[in-house]
């Protein structure tokens, strides 16, 4: 059995973009370009991009192992998921969220979602909003689990096939909603044991 990876939530950097766009292309019919991610990271004043990085210690094979370099092990790091949050006025908008297909089913998408919801609290947003395909019931179930409600339908929102999108929203202005987010985040933190430099620190620069 492979060792359980160490997970880290952190702000997305330019160095992450190749891995992020690879996951994006595997996840969506309309992926963002590398230029779009670069803009969100370096130029936008409203973006709070996040990645979930998994690292694990692996044995070194071949001549490196024979020479005893690095104690016979190496650290493998890879991006397994990412998300994007826009903060515009009182609204925190989840612009994108995805987990690598090979890393799904482990609750890591939920970790990313709660991280962005917690970041929205720190930004003093009044409401968290997102769009989701009407056919994507799995994602809708996750959002409803965390008390998002459908407030409308955006007709033909997705350009590749004119599919409609549900407009889903969560008011986080009241104390009960904020407490629920913190409790859900803490439960995931205890379950996955991730390191968090995304919600616990301001963005670099």
What does this structure look like?
- The protein has 205 residues and is an alpha+beta fold.
- It has one domain (6-196): 3-Layer(aba) Sandwich (Aminopeptidase).
- The chain contains six helices and eight strands.
- It has an eight-stranded mixed beta sheet with strand order 6-7-5-4-3-2-1-8, sandwiched between helices.
- Helix 4 packs across helix 6.
- The longest helix has 18 residues, at 175-192.
- It is globular and about 55 Å long.
- It starts with 5 loop residues before the first strand and ends in a 9-residue tail after the last strand.
Terminal CA distance: 40 Å
What is the CATH first-level class name? Answer: Alpha Beta
**CATH 2nd-level architecture:** 3-Layer(aba) Sandwich
Q: Give the number of DSSP strands.
A: 8
Radius of gyration, in Å, reads: 18 Å
Per CATH, the superfamily is Gcn5-related N-acetyltransferase (GNAT)
- Beta percentage is 25-35%
Mean pLDDT: 92
H/I helix tally: 6
Strand order of the largest sheet: 6-7-5-4-3-2-1-8
Helix content: 25-40%
Estimate the global geometry from the Cα principal axes: globular
Low-confidence stretches: none
Structural class: alpha+beta
In CATH terms, what is the fold-level topology? Answer: Aminopeptidase
Task: Output the helix-strand order.
Answer: EHHEHEEHEHEEHE
Largest sheet at a glance?
8 strands, mixed
As for the number of domains, it is: 1
């Amino acid at each position: 059995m492979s060792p359980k990876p160490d997970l880290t939530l952190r702000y997305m950097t330019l160095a992450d973009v190749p891995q992020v766009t690879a996951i994006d292309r595997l996840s969506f019919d309309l992926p963002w370009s590398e230029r779009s991610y670069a803009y969100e990271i370096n130029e936008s004043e409203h973006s709070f991009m996040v990645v979930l990085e998994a690292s694990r210690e692996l044995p070194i094979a071949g001549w490196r192992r024979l020479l005893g370099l690095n104690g016979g092990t190496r650290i493998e790091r890879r991006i397994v998921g990412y998300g994007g949050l826009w903060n515009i006025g009182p609204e925190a908008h989840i612009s994108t969220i995805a987990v690598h297909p090979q890393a799904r089913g482990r609750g890591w998408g939920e970790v990313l979602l709660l991280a962005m919801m917690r970041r929205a609290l720190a930004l003093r947003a009044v409401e968290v909003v997102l769009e989701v395909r009407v056919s994507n019931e799995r994602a809708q179930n996750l959002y409803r689990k965390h008390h998002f409600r459908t407030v409308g339908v955006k007709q033909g929102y997705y350009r590749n096939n004119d599919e409609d999108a549900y407009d889903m929203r969560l008011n986080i202005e009241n104390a009960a909603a904020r407490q629920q987010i913190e409790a859900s985040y803490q439960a995931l933190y205890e379950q996955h044991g991730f390191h968090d430099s995304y919600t616990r620190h301001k963005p670099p620069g």
